[in-house]
Amino acid sequence: MKSALITGITGQDGAYLAQLLLGKGYKVHGLVRRSSTTDVNDVRLRWLGIAGDVNVIDGDLSDLSSLMRIVRAAQPDEVYNLGAQSFVKTSWQQPLLTGAITGLGCAAMLEAVRLEKPDAHFYQASSSEMYGMIQEPMQSETTPFYPRSPYAAAKLYGHWMTVNYRESFGMHASSGILFNHESPLRGIEFVTRKVTDGVAKIKLGMASELRLGNIDAKRDWGHARDYVKAMWLMLQQEAADDYVIATGRTVSVRDMCEIAFQHVGLPLEKHLVIDPELFRPAEVDVLLGNPAKAKAKLGWEPETSLEDMIREMVDADLARLSTGR
Ligand code: NAP
Ligand code: F7E
Predict the structure, then answer these.
(1) Which residue's alpha carbon is nearest to atom 21 within ligand 2?
(2) What residues contact 234, with CB distance under 8 A and at least 6 apart?
(3) Nearest-atom index, ligand 1, CA of 12
(4) 127 CB near ligand 1 (under 6 Å)
(5) What per-residue confidence (pLDDT) applies to 269?
């Protein structure tokens, strides 16, 4: 039986990845940080019906000794470093914490693996945010980076540390440069989920308006369920490498909203309020990924359209709010 260790297992991607690996017969270990609300922090794992199937171990990405203890105990064949302070807007309010967890946390995890299980295959959750002020209209593995937030700068450090550990120590360390991916398990602060939750509340008469910031920003949005398959595929390759994971289609926040409102038959213009407070100090105006390498080398392709995903998310929020689940 293969075993895997996932940091960030309580997050959106961690939950879907755990489900995928359990389905493949893996023993799945998850690093979970100490919290006073441990009874609710496995909500996503419970939503997927797998909370009892993963081995949760306490630790924190800011504490190298805890990471070493966990890697030593689990002896994983594969390590997926998904833990992060992942909300871009918060990274301007907590830049040092973001650097410590999102950036240095990756270095700490690489060190723990190098010292305790150097033959483990390692995955780093890199991000399209690293392209920031885009240097090419369609971003690929060779496009230069230009980070535009403390989050993106921290991710860029993690990305290069992953490349460096591969080149310095021969570790099987891969970096997945994933473009935005969403699902009914997406955190409520991210724009897709904020929109689908807001639309569901308006539909059910629980709210009358939806407040957003820059709706002209464009993103290349895919489904988290599809994207965790790419993570796993990267670690099954003979050689480690870096891959862009994206759909190759970019859509504005406004048009994404339109899909959600249309699904429940409500007029967007009547309910949408633009709130200047929600704009960011620096914006990533547009992202569009080229997944050609992932298709050619991993045989990976996105399976879910943006329209289907947004409808799935609206339906899930309607069900959640109606049943109080
Ligand atoms: P998420 O839902 O925000 O999950 C983040 C996870 O990190 C949570 O499990 C969180 O634990 C954990 N975490 C935070 N601080 C930690 C610490 N100090 N020690 C240990 N764990 C800690 O993020 P996601 O959307 O699943 O994304 C997964 C990864 O991919 C992240 O690294 C993110 O930056 C990156 N990424 C995401 C996207 C995307 O579009 N979703 C795209 C590119 C890259 P708690 O539950 O305790 O908070
Ligand atoms: O914003 C605009 C906002 O917060 C998307 C993370 O997973 O993907 C994510 O980062 C766009 C931005 O995601 C609101 O200004 C407008 O242009 O959903 P988001 P993000 O910042 O792209 C990358 C790949 C990651 O790696 C990150 O971890 O939407 N926007 N109005 C808004 N965004 C939010 N959150 N809320 C608004 O009201």
Answers:
(1) 88
(2) 123, 174, 176, 240, 241, 243, 298
(3) 26
(4) yes
(5) 97
Given the candidates 3.20.20.70, 3.40.1260.10, 3.30.70.380, 3.90.25.10, the CATH classification of the domain at 187-219+249-287+304-323 is: 3.90.25.10
Topology of domain 3-181+222-245, per CATH?
Rossmann fold (3.40.50)
Residue closest by Cα to atom 7 of ligand 1: 83
Burial class for 29, CB neighbours closer than 10 Å (0-12, 13-18, 19+): buried
Distance CA(105)–CA(96), nearest Å, equals: 12
Its pTM stands at 0.98
> Which atom in ligand 1 lies closest to the alpha carbon of residue 224?
41
pLDDT of 2 reads 98
Ligand 2 atom closest to the CA of 178, numbered from 1: 24
| CATH 3.90.25.10 residue ranges for the chain | 187-219+249-287+304-323
- Give me the residues of the chain with pLDDT under 50, please: none
CA–CA separation, 136 and 157 (whole Å): 21
Instruction: Encode pLDDT of 109-121 as tens digits.
Output: 999 999 999 999 9
The per-residue pLDDT for 40 is 87
